[in-house]
Amino acid sequence: MVSVGIISDIHSNFFALEIVLEYLRDKIDALICAGDFVGYGFQPKECLEAIMDYSLPTYNCLGNHDVGVRYEYCQQFEQESCKDDLKLFSMEEVRPAAKSMFSQNAKGISESQYHFLEELPFFQEFGLGKKTFHLTHGTPSKKERDNIVRYLPAPPIQPLRQTIDRAHQFSGTKDVDIIIVGHTHQRFYINRDRVQGWSHIGERYSNASVSYPKVFKFPRDQIILNPGAIGQPRDGNPAASFMILDIDTSTVTFHALEYSRKEFYSQARDKCPPSIQDPSFWEIKI
Ligand SMILES: [Fe+2]
After folding, report:
1. How far does the centroid of ligand 1 lie from the alpha carbon of residue 229, in Å?
2. What is d(CA 7, CA 12) in angstroms, rounded to the nearest whole number?
3. DSSP-derived 3-state class of residue 140
4. pLDDT in tens, 154-201
5. How far does residue 282's CA lie from ligand 1's centre (Å)?
6. The model scores a pTM over 0.90
7. DSSP 19-35
8. Which one is the CATH code of 3-282: 3.60.21.10, 3.40.50.720, 3.90.1150.180, 3.90.870.10?
9. How far is the CA of 15 from the centre of ligand 1 (A)?
10. Is 55 strand, coil or helix?
11. Residue 94: phi, psi to the nearest 5?
12. Residue 41 C-alpha to ligand 1 middle, in angstroms?
């Protein structure tokens, strides 16, 4: 085991996912996805198909939008099994446009894709090479809701020490080498031992220009990673955001890959509600 692709927050944007998976082809030995496969975008079927049929080992977890889409699927097709989803969050917390895409995505997925969403774990721990991993969408926690809803932001959104302490609240995460989260749609790298970190948004706040690929080495340190979003980055760079982790050399490389955004927006105009059609929804600049 040498290289792992780490992605998150695909959000039914196959235009972006396809380019990233094509780039990763022949470069990785496994794929990790930190949740939110669906929601917002109009290509849930294509995105789930690509992940479910992926030719290498994959490690996935549940995102809040995955819960929203599977809940709507239950409603539409009278499945029994996901009644408990309403205990995770109330649909009143969800913006109307996002909610309407839950419903539209649910109509567009197959039964086996619904079961894939249904079986996603709140978190999972595993080992790859000599490293141990804890993977969750939101924040590591014994509360199920925190795993899918609670943000774990990095500086400058939240002080570094606070981010590390929050990540360590869940028993066991102190001991794992690599904690992986998504949900904020903002890429970052945090060295827990040295209480140091880097985020794209932090660079922007200091008016530095960031170019990709961007590489960090962590030979003996424990870290937290957020790969940013494939489908809807929220840190000012609209290109699809992801990372490759080289386990043998303890190196993480952040990537930002352009995709056919014009074509994606043009199709979104026909397929999404008004507030999601606008490019500004997909290119959030903080
Ligand atoms: Fe998300």
Report:
1. 7
2. 13
3. coil
4. 999 999 999 999 999 998 899 999 999 999 999 999 999 999 999 999
5. 12
6. yes
7. HHHHHHTTT-SEEEE-S
8. 3.60.21.10
9. 16
10. coil
11. -95, 135
12. 11
Question: Within 13 Å and on the Cβ side, how many CA atoms surround 273?
Answer: 14
Report the pLDDT value the prediction gives residue 40, as an integer from 0 to 100: 95
Tens digit of pLDDT for each residue in 265-280?
A: 999 999 998 888 888 8
For 155, which DSSP code? T
19, 50 contact by CB (below 8 A): no
Distance (angstroms) between ligand 1 centre and the Cα of 38 equals: 9
Q: Please name the residues in contact with 71: beta carbons below 8 A apart, sequence gap of 6 or more.
A: 82, 85, 86, 91, 102
Q: Which of 181, 173, 222 is nearest to 199 (CA)?
A: 181
Contact (CB, 8 A) for 7 and 31: yes
Q: Give CA–CA dist 259/45, Å, rounded.
A: 19
For residue 282, what is the DSSP state? H
Strands (E), 61-202: 123-128, 131-136, 178-180, 188-191, 196-199
**Could you give the 3-state DSSP secondary structure of residue 268?**
helix
Amino acid at 62: L
Amino acid at 222: Q
Residue 89: predicted pLDDT: 74
CB count within 10 Å of CB 18 equals 18
Q: Indicate the domain borders of the chain.
A: 3-282
Half-sphere exposure at residue 261, Cβ-oriented, CA atoms within 13 angstroms: 16
Say how many Å lie between the CA of residue 9 and the centre of ligand 1: 5
Write out pLDDT tens, residues 203-238: 888 887 889 999 999 988 999 999 999 999 999 899
**Distance between Cα 65 and ligand 1 center (Å):** 7
